[in-house]
Structure formats: structure tokens, C-alpha cells
Amino acid sequence: MVTRKVKRTMEKDENYFFELMKFKKHFFEDLQNRMNHVYDPRHQSYIDYSCDVLLFMIILKNACDLESMRTMTNELNKDECIINIKRALNIETLEELPHYDTINDFLSRLDPDELRNIRTYMIRELLKKRCFETSRIGGKYWAIIIDGTGLFTFNQKHCDHCLRREYKDEEGNVVKTVYMHHVLEAKLVVGNMVFSVDSEFIENESEEVPKQDCELNAFYRLAFRLNQTFKRLPICIIADSLYACENVFKTCHNNHWKFLLRFKEDRIKSISEEFHALGKMEETNGKEQQDKIRWVNHIAYNDWDIHVLEGTIKTEDGQKRFMFLTDIKITDKNCRKLLYAGRSRWKIENEGFNRQKHIRYHIEHASSHNYTAMKNHYLLTQITDILMQLLENGSNILKRVKKTAKEISSNLLEIIRMKLLTDEDITKMKKPTQVRFT
């Protein structure tokens, strides 16, 4: 057990800002250069801050758990912050940090695809390092979880792209209309970490559309882009029962992906009926009979050959039953791995949305009312989250002192405001380092 005194001793000479920059340098050596070379929509004659400074400010805001842009400007308004950012980015002159209005003006004109490309670069770099190979399903497929979540809610129309939800009285009259912005996320699962791979905003093309955009339509757009970006990556799509439909099967087949989808028995009744009608099912028992798994392979559904997996698992809340549809043939050797891979879908809720909404990042807080800037803020949050997850799960000091996410962010802000990066720190950043994830 690590006591408070031991923690103080261990952290005495630690600089968490240095740790963050060291991890950025180790995993994403070209990140700053790519941030600086996004297509800049500003008039070049009136520029005071380079693109990398503006984008890095939002990454710091997110990493330090600063909820609003105004708070960011106030909290980082110290000489020590200016010097630290100047040294971390290796900038010759930086007299002041940009005001939040300057940053939002830039983000309102920046094409979100520029940030998508940066995130793609980061994911590719992680895959190249091959440090997460053991996380593949069956040693082959990378698990990518698909799910949507709400971001912003307004009582009045925000823009033409808003989704609308109408509340009616008993006579059918609309008494209230809520305007919303939602997003569909694709997250790569590696151990206990989930990295954002792609984001598709669920949005109406205009206010006059006869039918609103939905999560499934957003999935088809996201799937097309994901396939174009990672053409040769062996992927297994993990999603909830909404995606258990023929069009999703077809999309995965055309992209040479596998799928592992949560199945509710009223979703496709013919599959459910055949699963239960078969008298003899293959099954396996878990250790000490704590869980039971059974399955049926080769259930015909139209032109598709579907395999059904059912698992009853003992949890702290009692016995829980799960069913999944997959196109991976189920065997006694892989049934347990598939079951737990399917159950990993909850990670996009806990390590993903819940963490980003209530623990750090505050993605439900609109840092700008411009719709393009709102998208870019969200994408920068996903970029920050990749960095922070690597830091929290790979840093030796953080693994030893066992701090919460909020404590890490608070300490990071304190260090940036109080302790300067030294020349020795800058030299250490350039040296190779070894990171282990356990």
C-alpha cells in the first residue's frame, strides 16, 4: 500500500507536463508538424499565432480538465505557462497566449477533415508500434466499437443541422421542441483503453428534410470513410442490437470486416426461433460453473450464414444473459473470447462517453456556438483523449501513485502554472524511451 508520505516522496521531482510531452514525442513524433501544416483559412497577413499553438491550447485545455474557453484563458494567463508552451513547442517568440476568441475564430473556419487526418495519423502510428497486438480478437481482428451519443441540447433552434425531438400533448399538438446534436463514434479497443478512430456527426442536411438523419445512416457514412482510411486493417465491428440487420451485414461483408453484434430476440425473430428450436446446442461450462456458454453455427438468414452465441455469466449483480450474432464461426476454443469481446462494448460507454462527459473533457459543454467550431472542439477532445490514455496507462509514476483522472488533470495544470521545463527536460524528451502497458 502506497501511503501519502510515500506518494509525496515519489512525486517530489516529477513534472507531469514533461511526462505528457515525452509521451507525445515517443508515440507521435510528427504530431506538432502536422498540426502546424493544417490548411489555414486565415488571411496570412494578419496572423499572430501559428496553427500548432492554437490547436495545442485546446489540447492543454482538455488535458487540464478546464470546462470552458474563458476558464482556459484565465487559468493559463501566467508567464510560466507562456514559457512552458514556448519550450514544449520549440517556438522562438511567444509573448502572449492566444485569447479564446482568437482560437474559436480559427476553429470556426478550419475544415474538420484536417483534424480527422491528424487523428488517423495517430492511430496509424500506434498500430505501427505493434504494442497492442495481444488485444486482437483471436489474434487477428482489431475490435472497433460503434455507438452514438448526444452532445448538445438546445430549447431553441441552433442551426439548420439540428436534430429535433417533439413532445406532444394528449391531443397530438406539439407543446415543446428540443434541438440536439449527436455524434456516432468508432473506437478501437486495446486492453482497458478505447481510442477514437473516426467520428460521424448525426445531422440533418437542412431544416426542411422530410426524414431526419439517424444513427444507422451515420454508420454507413462512417463505414465508407473507415474502409477508405484503413483498407487493409482486419476489423471486427462490435455494436448493440440496433445494428443487427441485413444492411449492416452487407456493409461489413463488402468491406471485408467481421461483426459481433448484441442480439435481442425480437430484433430478428426467425434467427431467435431457430436458435431455440434446435434441440442440441454446443456448449461449454466455465470454471466452477460460474458461467455457461452455448452457441449454434450456420443459421440461415436470407443469404447470410449467421452464428449465434449465448452466455450466462455470474456477476456481482447476479446472473446475466447475453446473446450475440457474428460471422466468425464459434468453437469451444474461441467461444469465451468472443463472448468477452462482445461484452467489451460497454467500454465505449464507461471509458468513452461517460468519462468524456462527467469525469474529464465536458463534451456536453458547447465551447463555441459556431457549428464547425463545435465539431473541431469535439475532434480535438478525441485527440487529447488518445494522449491522456497513453499517459495514464503507460507512465511509471502514474501507475505507482494510482491517481484519478481528475487528480492527474489538476496536477498537470498546477505544474504548467508553477514549474518550468528545463533545458535538461527538453534534452530528455529527444531521447528514446520505453513504455510498457500492463
From TrEMBL:
Span of domain H repeat-associated protein N-terminal: 34-117
Top-level lineage group: Bacteria
One Pfam family of this chain: DDE_Tnp_1_assoc
Protein's recorded name: Transposase family protein
Record-linked InterPro entries: RNaseH-like_sf (IPR012337), YbfD_N (IPR032806)
